[in-house]
Amino acid sequence: MSEQHAGTEAPRSFLFLNASSRPGGNSEQLARFAAGASLPAGAEQRWLRLSEHPLPLFEDRRHADDGFREPAGHERTLLDATLAATDLVFVAPLYWYSLPTSAKLYLDHWSAWLRVPGADFRARMAGGTVWAVTALATEPDKADPLIGTLRLCADYMGMRWGGALLGNGTRPGDVLKDEPALAAAESFFAG
């Protein structure tokens, strides 16, 4: 996460990690609405579709003689973007009560990034904020496993939990008819 110096406040940098399998889906539409309505003044934003930066299956190499390899390609892109951000926003529809595969795989790779020499991954992530923007087609409490996963990851890394913005929608564009979600999006990132 970007370091802040005593007496100065660096602009915040939001990394939107779109984990939807559908471009322009309800989660993305809600996240873009919230970003346009409530990002702090001067905040930077970067949007990455995880499907356009595919990661290899995670292999736990903690106890292998050669350990983890140096990140390259898409993994390096995601690691660098993650470290450059002050805020990570998981734009992730609810799939079977949890995160989509691409978001979970991204989190699995954190285990390797904790061991990349010189990355200081955990120390640099500490103090940042994790957010979730999620579209679902069921009751809001069904998103508890997804939210719990992200909250626990944030806690483990010494990060803050910014909250979850939930919107209802099945067909593309449905979420923009969810008036309570749009009202919540108006101030979501301002807190």
What does this structure look like?
With 191 residues, the chain is α/β, with parallel strands linked by helices. The protein has one domain: Rossmann fold, CATH 3.40.50. 33% of the residues lie in helices and 18% in strands. The protein has a five-stranded parallel beta sheet, sandwiched between helices. Strand 4, helix 5 and strand 5 form a beta-alpha-beta unit. The radius of gyration is 16 Å and the shape is globular. 34% of the residues are buried.
SSE layout and pairing:
Blueprint (H helix, E strand, L loop, with lengths): L12 E6 L7 H13 L5 E6 L23 H12 L2 E5 L9 H13 L7 H5 L3 E8 L7 H13 L3 E9 L10 H7 L6
Parallel strand pairs: 1-2, 1-3, 3-4, 4-5
Give a brief description:
This protein has 191 residues and is α/β, with parallel strands linked by helices. It has helices at residues 26-38, 73-84, 101-113, 121-125, 144-156, 179-185, and strands at 13-18, 44-49, 87-91, 129-136, 160-168.
The sequence of SSEs as H and E is: EHEHEHHEHEH
Would you count the extended β strands for me? 5
Rounded Rg: 16 Å
| Unreliable residue stretches | 2-7
Name the helicity range.
25-40%
Largest pleated sheet? 5 strands, parallel
> How many independent structural domains?
1
Give me the CATH superfamily: Flavodoxin domain
Percent of residues in β-strands: 15-25%
Instruction: Give me the number of helical elements.
Output: 6
Please give the CATH architecture: 3-Layer(aba) Sandwich
* Apparent shape: globular
Mean pLDDT: 92
